[in-house]
Amino acid sequence: MRLTWVLVPFLAWVWAQPTHTVAPGDTLFSIARRYGTTVEELMRLNGLESFLIQVGQVLRLPEKLQGERVHQVAPGDTLFSIARRYGTTVEELMRLNGLTSPDLQVGQILKLPAPSSREGSPQEAPQEPKDQAALEDFDPESPLVKAVLRYLGVPYKYGANSPLALDCSAFVAQVYAELGVVLPRTTKEQYRALPAADSLRPGDLVFFSFGGKEVDHVGIYLGRGVFAHASSYGSRVVIESLEAPFYQKAYRGARRVLQEAQRP
User: How confident is the model at residue 7 (pLDDT cuts 50, 70, 90)?
Assistant: First the structure.
């Protein structure tokens, strides 16, 4: 009887939790973006130690906050116009909604920051974002980002270097080859050939060590705290958060590609 008293409230709580069943093609990044949360929060809620998920797996989602302010994207809306309207910044909207790109879809629901005492109504004169330079550190129209997006979803295979499959260093080399920049083939060669980057900026190569002291993985930093890479865990090219504990633990530094890519 006592066991029943304990289990019934517990099961009622579990059933009340919002969940998502992993479908083919899902990644933690795509799920986080769909539900307006972050990869880190999904990993914390579900006790995950890596980004690898399985089809059919049921993931717990964050509970919706009471009194949460939201905005439904209308035709013509941009993150910048929405930020101006509500007296916030593009960075804050992207952080709240787990976005890594400023692209929006009509009908999409965006979380809004809690109103402050200084914030007026949405119809009042908008406030300029304080850090205008930060708005420019992620350019979805840049040749680099466009090249990266063409590879999203390409399967990962160790040692591969083709349009059908590639590994992490091949992905980096192929992206930069499209921009007219020749890079060494392997992760270690890329790390040794390029100068260190004191502070991250889009286009820098970010390096990791998962198997020992030497670097064994590489990706391309895109800005906004995210990077693109051919992931052996995700088995394809993905965009993920560089700030995730899983990657921060293995992070070994960044290298700068000196030759600037020119627009065609």
Answer: very low
Q: Which domains does the chain have, with CATH numbers?
A: 2-60 (3.10.350.10), 143-255 (3.90.1720.10)
For residue 181, count other CB atoms closer than 10 A to its CB. Answer: 16
pLDDT band at 140 (very low <50, low <70, confident <90, very high): low
As to burial, measured by CB atoms within 10 angstroms (0-12 exposed, 13-18 middle, 19+ buried), residue 141 is exposed
Cβ atoms within 10 Å, residue 117: 4
Which sequence positions are flagged as catalytic?
A: 168, 217, 229
- 37 to each of 54, 80, 91, 134, 174, how far by Cα in Å? 19, 20, 14, 21, 31
* Residues paired with residue 217 on neighbouring β-strands, in sequence order: 208
Instruction: Select the more confidently predicted residue: 166 or 62.
Output: 166
> What CA–CA distance (Å, rounded) separates 152 from 100?
14
φ and ψ at 61, to 5 degrees?
-115, 155
Taking the C-alpha atoms of residue 173 and residue 184, their distance in angstroms, rounded to an integer, is 7
Q: Choose among 129, 26, 41: nearest CA to 78.
A: 129
Which token pair is 9?
Answer: 């409230």
CA–CA separation, 205 and 228 (whole Å): 10
Question: What's the pTM value of the predicted model, to 2 decimals?
Answer: 0.52
- Eight-class DSSP state of 123: T
pLDDT tens for 143-182 read: 898 888 888 888 999 889 887 899 999 999 999 999 999 9
Among residues 98, 100, 93, the alpha carbon closest in space to that of 73 is found at 93
Rg (CA), the chain: 21
